[in-house]
Amino acid sequence: MDLNSYAELAVRLVNTRDASGRQDELATIEAYQGLMADRAALCARATAADLDALRELRFQLRLIFAACTAGDGDGAVARLNALLARHPIHPEIARHDGGAWHLHHADSGSVADRYAAGAVLGLTIVLTNLGTERLRHCEAPSCPNVLVDTTPDRSQAYCGDRCAAKASVTALHERRRSPSEKASTAAV
For the chain, which has fewer Cβ within 10 Å, the N-terminal or C-terminal residue? Predict the structure, then answer.
């Protein structure tokens, strides 16, 4: 079982809405299927009811990331426990693609049920094994996205290469500004 890929489901779902709120990858079944093209089992037979359930799950997961970012581990765990009760995980042993036997969660229920079980399982494992500080918001000032930091030294600050590059460019420009420019900006 690749637990990071399950936790990534939670990140992917929370990050389905852009900062402006105009683009929502849960707006249509086709948009959702495009988002999940690499996970056929999670996009086949998706319905409008699944999209409604996934929007609610997105909201609940965002609250967990917000609690972790704010240092409210108890709040994050309470919310995660509520999701575990609402979306039970049914494990099964599987083998495919010539690999060894390994653990999967069973593909039962609706598309939204399967998505929720995987995402909640992934966040549960990350939170219990690595800590609540691994679930957080991207540090880029204008980015609403979340991330799961699985780096050994807890160093992932940005949701992706784009935000990391923007932060690097901003820091470079800040270092190059003259002291008088910095003072006039601070005075405003």
Answer: C
What is the four-CA torsion angle of 113, 117, 119, 120, rounded to 10 degrees? 120
Of the listed ranges 30-34, 53-57, 104-108, the one predicted with least confidence: 104-108
Q: How far apart are CA 186 and CA 10, in angstroms?
A: 39
Q: What is the mean pLDDT of residues 127-132?
A: 94
What own/partner pairs with CB < 8 Å and gap ≥ 24 does 104-112 have? Answer: 104/1, 105/1, 105/6, 107/41, 110/47, 110/49, 110/50, 110/53, 111/42, 111/43, 111/44, 111/45, 111/46, 111/47, 111/50, 112/49, 112/50, 112/51, 112/53, 112/54, 112/57
Mean per-residue pLDDT, 121-127? 93
Integer Cα distance of 35 and 29 in angstroms = 10
For 172, phi then psi, to 5°, come to -65, -45
Q: Please answer whether residues 14 and 146 qualify as being in contact, where contact means their C-beta atoms are separated by less than 8 angstroms.
A: yes
Find out whether 25 and 17 touch, Cβ atoms under 8 Å: yes
Give me 32's structure tokens: 């959702």
CA atoms of 70 and 47, how far apart (whole Å): 35
Cα–Cα dist 120/158, whole Å: 22
